[in-house]
Structure to design on (216 residues):
């Protein structure tokens, strides 16, 4: 017996809904983590916020830790992986590539509500060192490797002067981290919205002046 058009339509809607559930669960989890912190968040809270049963969450995620790690990988991690892929084999100015990389991170900072994730890591790393280890390996180490490669390229191409790369890379990302902490902690007290793009633009100007090769 053939299905009616109504049955087919209902099945299609159910399939689309099923595919959307992981992202809906993640969005709900982010809100719960932001409100309650990692320790205070419960799977029951996430299920209620997502409008699903707790059992539904376990169809997609093993536990609360898996939910949190997926949030990190799907936003900050995905942005970092995309930037790394787009700069790895590109020939040209290291300065332009460094500007692109930091610009992509700044865009995430200013547009995504998942910017709260680093704050949660810092706040709860003492009680959950595994999360801090995960974040360092998945995000920090890969980010530092990306920035190191770009600065080393700039030095090799004669664009940048010789600097201690291990320190320079941390200076590259420090304003991004400051912006993330500011947006998630202190921005609520700002008399007017802070210009995060202006922060990054000013940072790049100062950074490139500092990296500029000395004239002989």
């Amino acid at each position: 017996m053939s299905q009616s058009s109504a049955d087919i339509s209902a099945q299609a809607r159910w399939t689309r809904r099923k595919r959307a559930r992981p992202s809906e669960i993640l969005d709900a989890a982010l809100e719960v983590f932001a409100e309650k912190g990692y320790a205070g968040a419960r799977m029951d809270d996430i299920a209620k916020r997502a409008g699903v049963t707790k059992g539904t969450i376990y169809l997609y995620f093993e536990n609360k830790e898996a939910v949190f790690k997926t949030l990190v990988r799907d936003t900050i991690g995905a942005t970092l992986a995309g930037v790394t892929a787009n700069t790895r084999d590109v020939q040209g100015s290291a300065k332009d590539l460094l500007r692109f990389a930091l610009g992509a991170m700044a865009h995430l900072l200013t547009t995504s509500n998942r910017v709260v994730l680093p704050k949660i890591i810092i706040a709860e790393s003492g009680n959950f060192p595994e999360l801090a280890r995960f974040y360092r390996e998945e995000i920090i180490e890969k980010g530092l490797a990306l920035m190191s490669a770009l600065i080393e390229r700039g030095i090799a191409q004669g664009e940048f002067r010789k600097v201690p790369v291990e320190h320079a890379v941390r200076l590259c990302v420090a304003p991004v981290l400051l912006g993330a902490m500011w947006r998630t902690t202190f921005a609520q007290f700002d008399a007017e919205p802070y210009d995060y793009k202006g922060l990054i633009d000013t940072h790049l100007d100062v950074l490139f002046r500092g990296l500029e090769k000395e004239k002989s």
